[in-house]
Amino acid sequence: MKAEARRRAAIVVFAGAGALLITPAWAHEQRGQAAGFLTGLRHPVSGLDHVVAMVAVGIWGAQLGVPAIWLLPLTFPPVMAFGGFLALLGVPLPGVEIGIASSAIVLGAMVACAARPPLWLAAVVVGFFAVFHGHAHGTELPAGESGLLYSVGFVVATGCLHTIGIGIGLIHGWRWGRTALRVAGGAIATAGMLFLWRALS
């Protein structure tokens, strides 16, 4: 069963990577529509604070195993989209940058400690931080671009980052892999502390 789960996760990882590679094809769409989608697609990978947190979600899910390996990455994008929708409506959310930095600290710590809370609690933690990431994306929508297509773009990119995290997390099946993931989690949490310091400066 574990081998089959790893095979399926690897397929998802390659599919996600392929989705990122084929995005130039959207350049043939109408200018405004393509720009909105492509801008949203690129936005999550333009900031390291977003990238490390989203990858950490996938890694943590892989550490926890089925069903968390799918539930956590599936929880983040829709809740993030909700946060982005709030931003597009002009609803303020205090401490967005602090929330994003804290997400890297907390999620990195969960990976570093190989924490195994109840599944519902893990999903709540992931969903809580997703709101901050989504609000940041929504706030930074460029003028004149489609909010809907921009949102679809950053949700797709986020899903790809989660699948990359799952792919990395599959090394949890080996002893050396578990050690490597703990080190990676510590690095993510440390990066989060640097992001927090920058946000508070």
Structure description:
It is a single chain. The protein has helices at 2-21, 31-42, 48-64, 68-88, 96-112, 119-139, 147-169, 175-200. With 201 residues, it is mostly helical. The chain is built from eight helices and no strands. The model is unreliable at 5-34 (pLDDT under 50). It has one domain (2-200). α5 runs antiparallel to α8. The protein starts with a helix and ends with a helix. It is globular, with a radius of gyration of 17 Å.
Q: Distance between the terminal alpha carbons, to the nearest Å?
A: 49 Å
Write down the overall mean pLDDT.
Answer: 81
Please estimate the helix content.
over 70%
Domain module tally: 1
Strand content: under 5%
Structure summarized in a few sentences:
The chain is an all-alpha fold and 201 residues long. Helix content is 78%, strand content 0%.
Question: What descriptors fit this protein?
Answer:
single chain; mainly alpha; 201 residues
SSE topology sketch:
Blueprint (H helix, E strand, L loop, with lengths): L1 H20 L9 H12 L5 H17 L3 H21 L7 H17 L6 H21 L7 H23 L5 H26 L1
Helix pairs in contact: 1-7, 2-7, 3-4, 3-5, 3-7, 3-8, 4-6, 4-7, 5-6, 5-8
